[in-house]
Amino acid sequence: MTVFVVRRLVLLVVSLFAASVLTFALLRLLPGDAAAAIGGITADEAQLRAVRHELGLDRPLVQQYATWLADVLSGDLGRSQLNGTSVTAELGEKARVTGPLVLGSLALALAGAVPLGVLAALRHRSRVGTGISAASQIGIALPTLWVGLLLVTVFAVQNRRLPAQGFPVEGWAEPGQALRSLVLPWITLALSEGAVLLRFVRSATLDVLGQDFLRTARANGRTRAGALWRHGLRNASGPVVSVLGIQVAALLVGAVVVEKLFALPGAGSMLVADVGNRDLVKVQGEVLVVVAIVLAVGFAVDVGQRLIDPRLRETGR
Amino acid sequence: MSGILRALLRHRSGLLGLVLVSVLVAAAAVSWVWTPYDPTTTDLKARWVLPFRDGHVLGTDMLGRDQLSLLLVGARETLAVALLATAIAAAVGLLMAGAAALAPRWISASVVQLVDVVIAFPALLTAMVLAAVFGGSLWTAASAVGIASGVHVARVTRLEIERVRGTDYVLAATASGSGTWRTMRRHVLPNIAPTLIVQLSLVMAVATLTEASLSYLGYGSPSPAVSWGRMLHDQQPYIEARPLLVVWPGIAVALTVLGFNLLGDALRDATDPRLRGSGVGSAAPGGVPESAAEGLPKHGSAAAVPVAAVAAPASAPLLTVTDLTIRVGARILVDGVSLSLAAGERLGLIGESGSGKSLTSLAVPGLLPEGLTASGSIRIDGVELLGRPERQLAGIRGERVAMVFQEPLTALDPLWRIGRQIAEPLRLHRGLTRRQADEEALRLARRVGLPDPEHIVRAWPHQLSGGQRQRVGIAIALACRPALLIADEPTTALDATVQREILALLDELTREQGTALIFVTHDLAVVASVADRIAVMRRGRIVEHGPLGEVLASPREAYTRSLLAAARATSFTPSPASPSAVPPIPPSAPSAEPFEPSLATEATT
């Protein structure tokens, strides 16, 4: 197990390094001119050269990358090309909205998907089961942004129970207000993630229900439900945990759309604005952070799988 | 291919998916030649017309643009992005998978590594980066989705190539001098095509969603192009005044994604031969009850075996089964079985696969598979079990009636330590504390002859051999000293020497504890070594029933005689004189069915 964790950790570091190279390459090697973007179409050649020099764009690429990487490793994701604000500081600030948004909707999605998925598996031949399955299929197809717009229409325009736009200026200093303005975003984001998770919970549970060891547990004196609870769910959790790892990426991307929908001042809105401004240094830092989170979650999932299943611990892969 | 199409048409949700996607294609095609109004001309005099007014079926927006026309033209953008993304994904996926599977080792290793890293870049994120560098366009969404999905396709395709390459016919083709590329084209590509098609239809769903999101965020194709996502973007500020306007494009996106998803799911079902035409109980041609009389002319006399006469024990019976009938739907799998067992008695229940012997034994503790119903009567200590709620049955299972199953490899929970599983019935029925249960588990492990018991109670099931796991199964079953042990083919999955040890162990422990035994098997040699009485089952009925020696010496039924002949043919002669001695066992149990092709095999296993 320790050997595995160490090897997987080395792999994580290698992947993070590769991801940083890819991110850098994506933004610096592609034939676009950041200087032209900043200088504007009216800038003449001398102005452009000045901008390039200021940004360090006239140095060799490898040197630019090395400088950037060294900064990143010391926790500095660079400064905005437009107004010089620190990307790290701004991301830290925005994470106070995006973090609760993503984690809250993940919790909400799980709270809905696990019981409903198990129920759909237990009653897979009945109307309840097929009904839940069909609903999850529709839930997957519904675009997050459209669900959000409908929720805005129903809850904020028609009956005005919940705030549909914005976040309190005081932030979490106003906890009640802050929570209320997150309710609709949470539901919006949780709905499609929950629908995906539900399908995996259902199929994993169905798999487990057919297993011999569940019959053994019942022969030992457990009820059908008891056997599923004590033996089934843990066995079903393996595939669900792997999907959860993949879905974290979807949640982060979903947060971009949801923050724009509900005008939340989070990291997603920040990214959208920076793309609009072509502030490449900021975009580069933001992309790297998202990818690093996805890779780190992948690491956590791989280790978690081995904590759940002793059979995986021995293969060493 | 036409087979896949036909399967798709029979698949109800697949048909729906096909219809939805066809509507999308039709809308895009129609929009080239006709739209109700010019979608891009603005008409400020006709702003915010309600649906079905002035020829605007879906109404107009703040600029007076006809919504239906915009939707029709928007289908083009969606379809274009979906097709483009799919083409890119296929190209990226096949190239990377090919490189990973065929190139020299160092290249393939780095490609696999690269795929794992690129997968961490979500499509929408890549799209936004591309938009930041180039500005938004049709290509932004398409190439971002194409690359992001392409690496997924690469991963799936590589695994598939490796799998197909390992199959016998490809190995044979390679051995007979077929070159790598030829093998790929002739053998590997056709085999991975179904997986690829399914993957690519799902790419279209992702592309549709990503295009919509990207356009909504303002980074889709620039202005004269029309897209559903941008319609949502344009209309959000007016949502308070005209909420209906965000409904139409949303429905369009949702139905398109649903269409691609359903199509993908249906294609997966259609191309997976395991799922094709699956239905419960389709395995057995001809119903059991109808054919029961055919190969068995003396059936009438068999039914007249006086159960009470042979089975009547002196003391009150521990188990009484009367007229047990098990059905699945209208089909009868077990037909009026009656049995009786006194405390400490040992019955061998014998028959070929599909004879209903396993179902009969599973019915006693209420463990029939879902969908099967039992009628008649099953009494333990005079108490009726049939129709009792699960909770009460659970109180008897493991306590009064215990079971040992056929497959020791799958009967144990892979995630629980051995000791904890052995102690499970004790903790459930005796309420032992954890420490007491641990001690008891250790004692039982020692008693069933597990090697190094202190170590093995801490081990996981996958670390044990088949014979060791069956010893664990016996330890679990006998933990609470049940009055009745039902062993359902407990040695069938084991090899010959281990079979003998397990039989001896079962024999010894049940005698020691005075446990009554129902031993279910298809192997006469095995049953002769443990049973006092045997009941022969065929096609859901008991056809012969009596003391072991009597049945072996003078079988009345043609079927029993044929079972005996089959046992003798494998060089074993049952010795009725010493039923409890463990006889030599034929090297392998006759796996071919001795009498006739079995019926309803599915239902019993």
Automatic annotation (TrEMBL), chain A:
Which BP terms in the Gene Ontology apply to this protein?
A: transmembrane transport
Q: Which CDD domains match?
A: TM_PBP2
Record-linked SUPFAM superfamilies: MetI-like
Membrane-spanning segments: 101-122, 134-158, 178-201, 240-263, 283-303
Per the record, GO CC terms? plasma membrane
This one is known as ABC transporter permease
Organism listed in the record: Yinghuangia soli
Lineage from the top down? Answer: Bacteria, Bacillati, Actinomycetota, Actinomycetes, Kitasatosporales
- Would the keyword Transmembrane helix turn up in this protein's UniProt record? yes
**Where is it chiefly localized?**
membrane
TrEMBL record, chain B:
User: Per the record, where are the segments of Low complexity compositional bias?
Assistant: 590-605
Q: Which UniProt keywords apply?
A: ATP-binding, Cell membrane, Membrane, Nucleotide-binding, Transmembrane, Transmembrane helix, Transport
Identify the InterPro entries for this entry: AAA+_ATPase (IPR003593), ABC_Ni/Peptide_Import (IPR050388), ABC_transporter-like_ATP-bd (IPR003439), ABC_transporter-like_CS (IPR017871), MetI-like (IPR000515), MetI-like_sf (IPR035906), P-loop_NTPase (IPR027417)
- The segment annotated Disordered runs over 572-605
What range(s) does the ABC transmembrane type-1 domain occupy? 75-264
**Which compartments does it reside in?**
Cell membrane; Membrane
Superkingdom of the organism of origin:
Bacteria
Domain (ABC transporter): residue spans on this chain: 319-564
Main location (coarse class)? membrane
Tell me which Pfam families the record gives: ABC_tran (PF00005), BPD_transp_1 (PF00528)
Q: Which GO terms describe its cellular component?
A: plasma membrane
In the UniProt record, does the keyword Cytoplasm occur?
Answer: no
Which is a GO BP term held by this UniProt record?
A: transmembrane transport
Claim: Signal is one of the keywords in the record: no
Topology versus the membrane: Multi-pass membrane protein; Peripheral membrane protein
Instruction: Kindly give the Gene3D superfamilies that the UniProt entry links to this protein.
Output: MetI-like, P-loop containing nucleotide triphosphate hydrolases
Q: Which residues cross the membrane?
A: 15-34, 79-102, 114-132, 138-156, 188-209, 245-264
Q: What are the GO MF terms of this UniProt record? A: ATP binding; ATP hydrolysis activity
Q: Which family does it belong to?
A: Belongs to the ABC transporter superfamily.
Name used for this protein in its record:
Dipeptide/oligopeptide/nickel ABC transporter permease/ATP-binding protein
